[in-house]
Design a protein that fits this description.
By secondary structure, the protein is an all-alpha fold. The protein contains 2 helices and no strands.
């Protein structure tokens, strides 16, 4: 497998992990009774934060 393809796979794995974290955050916040738009904003923020964290870790490990 080429190094370019490996980098793309790592980014896709990071995006999927971030998506799961965002869904969990949105679902947990929606249980508190907030409006759906607020739950979506929490999910989006957690997606962005998790994606940044994943990219930082992958860069620090030299995988990107």
């Amino acid at each position: 497998m080429s190094p370019h393809a490996t980098k793309i796979l790592w980014v896709l794995i990071s995006a999927l992990i971030s998506l799961v974290v965002a869904l969990l955050a949105g679902i947990l916040v929606s249980f508190t009774g907030v409006p759906p738009a607020t739950a979506i904003l929490y999910g989006g923020g957690s997606f962005a934060g998790c994606m940044i964290l994943c990219m930082t870790v992958l860069t620090a490990l030299g995988l990107l």
